[in-house]
Amino acid sequence: MPEEEKEPLPEEEAELEEETKDESGIDVEKTSLEELREVIAKKDRQGLLSIFERVPTIDIAEAADDLEPTELIYIFRNVESSWTADFFDDLTQDTKERLVQAMTDKDLVKLINSQATDDIVDTVGDMPANLASRVLKAADKEMRADINALLKYKDGTAGALMTTDYIELIGSLSVEAAMKAIRERGKDAETIYTIFVRNRQREFVGTVDLDDLIFADPQDKLDDIMNSDVVSVQATTDQEEVGQIFRRYDLNALAVLNDDDRLVGVITIDDAVDVMTEESSEDMARMSNMEPTEKPYLELSPWENAMKCIPWIMALLVLGTFTTMVLNRLESKAIFTNLPILIAFVPMLMDTGGNAGGQTTGLMIRSLALKEFSPKDIHRVLWREFRSALVVAAAIASFSFFWLLIEQYTGIVELGVLGEGTGSRVDLSGMNIWKGNCWNWEFGYHALINAGLIGVTMFAAVTVAKLVGTLLPIGAAAIKKDPALLSQPLLTTVMDVTTLMIYWAVAMAFFPQFAS
Amino acid sequence: MPEEEKEPLPEEEAELEEETKDESGIDVEKTSLEELREVIAKKDRQGLLSIFERVPTIDIAEAADDLEPTELIYIFRNVESSWTADFFDDLTQDTKERLVQAMTDKDLVKLINSQATDDIVDTVGDMPANLASRVLKAADKEMRADINALLKYKDGTAGALMTTDYIELIGSLSVEAAMKAIRERGKDAETIYTIFVRNRQREFVGTVDLDDLIFADPQDKLDDIMNSDVVSVQATTDQEEVGQIFRRYDLNALAVLNDDDRLVGVITIDDAVDVMTEESSEDMARMSNMEPTEKPYLELSPWENAMKCIPWIMALLVLGTFTTMVLNRLESKAIFTNLPILIAFVPMLMDTGGNAGGQTTGLMIRSLALKEFSPKDIHRVLWREFRSALVVAAAIASFSFFWLLIEQYTGIVELGVLGEGTGSRVDLSGMNIWKGNCWNWEFGYHALINAGLIGVTMFAAVTVAKLVGTLLPIGAAAIKKDPALLSQPLLTTVMDVTTLMIYWAVAMAFFPQFAS
User: Fold this and answer.
1) Residue with the larger pLDDT of the pair B5 and A206
2) What is the average per-residue pLDDT within B90-119?
3) Buried-most residue among A135, A381, B192, B325 (CB within 10 A)?
4) How many angstroms separate the CA of residue A444 from the nearest CA in chain B?
């Protein structure tokens, strides 16, 4: 790789993460806790500013998370708010709270009013009441009103994501006038790349992209150049939908309307990106039967981590009882006591059933999340999955048939193994593919039947698994439940039990002579 | 929900997807194949344009995918290219190819040169050679050069994602001059929201956001207002990294540099969003042991679908052989032939081990994908997981102990079930918690031991599972393999076998008297 020619900066050698990033060809300056400590201790304002000029704020914030509040306050007093605004937002919630506690009212007022409203709302939302009220007191009247308004929206809705710092102009305005308005009011706006246009009735009618404004004739009216084919959502819309809309329509910003079609807020792409990440993390957690968390891994305490795991394992354990029950009953059937070797294949059969179903469930969960189809398409999807299920089942069945022969002929599984003195009706103990130096027909015959038995069971199990794996997530989505929530855990149990029943039924058919 | 008051538009009643969207508070106009067919058949140019004014192009494209090439060509001839450019890009690859085949050279030239270079590159890259060469012929000289240059980069790298339609200006330029340059050259640029700044040596030195230009004094130099704390990547950088950078640094556009630090291309947020989606879909596919695909579900034929599934199930089946082997051997041990009830718990134990490990693996895969930590942090992570593993193991162990008692006392599992005539040394056949009307001590004793056996096995199995579940993905990442690729399949096998061995060992310790 060409990057290796470049020799890494001293800090980068120190911090390991950088190194890997460097290898992967990403070029970004970093800082370290030590460097920050040093410039602050030396009250070296220039040095501090140069760090902010060189290094993206989020990287500074990451290094700064372990600074003392007093040290942090030095930063906020000496760096201009255009930087500290992002810097504060990039700190961890915990550090933010320590800081708010330690700051003087004067510093706090400066800090809070330099922040974007929606960022402050997120922070305040997670703060203990006493700190939250400190922040609210610090915010100026108008901002406080906005914060309180936004705090009302339920987490996970468009309302909770949106900001009130946007630019809305009336359509009759000329491009020239619009640019003037943007220059005046744009500084506090979260984005000026999308301008929102309203009519005389204050209803939202469309958007104008900043670049269109720039290319347009100064005398044009916004009405003439705006895009009227725009998407908008309600404040109650689920954030997952918001992510899908940004993805589908390649938006920079999305209008949030109330019931009278008036603009109440705007969601920007950076927040939408976070939501997409959050939503797919959630699905992945669900897929591995775990409670999702919004915290980054290293902020998650081992205890919290455990609490996310335990309920699901317990639930699955209880569900698993059905498997125990069925196996417990079947075990006592003559067929299994006579041919205990059949038991040895049970885990393999169950795993395969689970795997085949899991693939389909995973595919369904993802496609539903990306709105590639909706529960209403169930017939279409089911028919597709049925056909591919047959292909997969046929392939796996024939493969396992031959694999089973190999397993037995090579002695990987010992056909004869029955345990001492279990007095089985067929004594295959220590039986082997060769009797003396000639082919052992009895063995060959048994091995063949076993292989056939597994093959047929596989075919049925895989087909059923794929269909169940299709129905569970779509069913969940149809009743407006998170497809990832129910499908995965249910699948295992359903398939374990189904596979066992199929296995038993087929075994009875294949070995009628040992069935009693 | 307030939306329910609104009555849906006629088309929306027709198409089911809309309805659900409407419920969720998303407000967007739609069209349908029928509507398009009608306006085209009637050669109703106005009607067609009004659709494009009302409806986002991607929704039109979705409806238009089933139109005849001749009908599509009518659209391209009558709608201005500012719309048809996006419209073409939103069509499915298959439709694009049918169209390119059917178009006259004249139409094709107009279409291709209205396209963004990186979009054309994606399309051409997947086209059969004869069509690809048609497209290249249609492109003007400069564009053809760009396309050929971009086609060189390996799929999945920054180079393959980037566009060459960007604005790069020299830092000594004044804001006024810059705005002039943007007005002149900005129309063909993919984005003008981020302007890329170079020095006299043509090296990339920073970026200027369009809004900063607008707020700046016309006489300022770009050097003075530009952000110099910018991230950039190499053309060889993996697209997963690109997604992470956009997420981390909230970028609108990212600079791609060559070894001489010169700008060779730019990646825009919309492409980055697609990459993030693609990458997390890939991880999810891996997590459900399936080959990832880039195609949306409904474009994936059942056959292709099956091909994504089969290899993995087969691989897992072969891996599963170890489980069969071990169980096959253990089955013959006196302990299991004497107490066949123990076999009934095997699937539950295996599932729990798999689930506990799966949770951790899922968490690791996701955290690694989001760069929440790197393989170098393995000690830290392992120590965290070890502690939470102990908590989980303790909880599950004690829970399963009591659950096992319940299972047995209620007769959910029948302790006595041994099958007729297996001549076990302990005959618990039909044994029950009550002997006549008094407590059956022998039963109680056995049930208790069984519960204890399961509890202890659970504790060991869960602890091991969590540690294995941590090590597999981090190990994979450390050797630069996709953590999701190896961890999931290996985990099941490793845990199945490990759990069995633990179970057997503990059983021997608990039932020495039945161990031979």
Assistant:
1) A206
2) 90
3) A381
4) 18
Inform me whether the pLDDT recorded for A1 exceeds 50. no
A-B contacts (CB, under 8 Å)? 468
Which residues, 6 or more positions from B218, have their beta carbon under 8 angstroms from its beta carbon?
Answer: B174, B175, B176, B179
Cβ–Cβ under 8 Å, residues B386 and B440: no
Do A21 and B331 make contact, defined as CB atoms within 8 angstroms?
A: no
From the CA of B258, how many Å to the nearest CA of chain A?
9
Q: What are the residues whose beta carbons fall under 8 Å from the beta carbon of A480, sequence distance 6 or more?
A: none
pLDDT at A174: 95
| Nearest alpha carbon to residue A290 among A446, A447, A12, A484 | A484
Q: Are strands A253-257 and A263-268 parallel, antiparallel or unpaired?
A: antiparallel
- What per-residue confidence (pLDDT) applies to B435? 60
Residue of B nearest to A268 (CA): B250
Q: What is the pLDDT of residues A147-166, one digit of tens each?
A: 999 999 998 899 999 999 99
Neighboring chain B residues of A259 at a CB cutoff of 8 Å: 2, 5
For residue A24, the distance in angstroms to the closest alpha carbon of chain B comes to 6
> CA B428, B433, B434 angle in degrees (round to 5)?
110
Residues of B in contact with A313 (CB under 8 A): 352, 355-356, 359, 392, 396, 462
Comparing CB atoms, the residue among B26, B249, B290 nearest residue A359 is B290
Give residues with Cβ within 8 angstroms of B243, minimum separation 6. Answer: B272, B275, B276, B279
Show residues of chain B in contact with A421, CB under 8 Å: 337, 423
Nearest one of A230, A484, A253, A445 to A365, comparing CA atoms: A484
Q: How many CB atoms lie within 10 A of CB B218?
A: 11
User: Kind of pairing, strands B232-234 and A26-27?
Assistant: antiparallel
Token duo for residue B464: 């091991």
Element (H, E) at B50: helix B45-54
* Parallel/antiparallel/unpaired status of strands A434-435 and A263-268: unpaired
- Contacting residues of B for A249, CB less than 8 Å apart: 56, 58
Asked whether the ipTM of the predicted complex exceeds the cut of 0.90, the reply is no
Shortest Cα distance, chain A CAs vs residue B230, angstroms: 7
Spatial contact of B18 and B28, defined as CB atoms under 8 Å apart = no
- CA dist list (Å): A309 to A281, A378, A423, B363: 15, 32, 45, 10
* Number of alpha carbons in the 13 Å side-chain half-sphere of residue A481: 12
| Coil, strand or helix at B327 | helix
Q: At CB < 8 A and 24+ separation, what contacts does A435-441 make?
A: none
Summarize pLDDT for B23-73 with one digit per residue, the tens.
667 888 888 889 999 999 999 999 999 999 999 999 999 899 889 999 999
- How many CB atoms are closer than 10 A to CB A352? 25
Per the prediction, chain B carries an average pLDDT of 86
B367 with A496: Cβ contact below 8 A: no
Helix-helix angle B269-287:A346-369, to 10 degrees: 160
Tell me, what's the pLDDT at B490? 85
A401 touches A451 (CB < 8 A): yes
pLDDT of residue A416 exceeding 70 = no
Evaluate whether B275 touches B281 at the Cβ level (below 8 Å).
no
SS3 B265: strand
A232, containing H or E segment: strand A232-234
Q: Nearest by CB to A351, which of B316, B331, B380?
A: B316
Which positions in chain A touch B259 (Cβ < 8 Å)? 2, 5
Tell me which chain B residues have a C-beta less than 8 angstroms from the C-beta of A323: 347-348, 351
Contacts of A251 (CB under 8 A, 6+ apart): A194, A231, A245, A269, A272
Contact between B91 and B61 (Cβ < 8 Å): yes
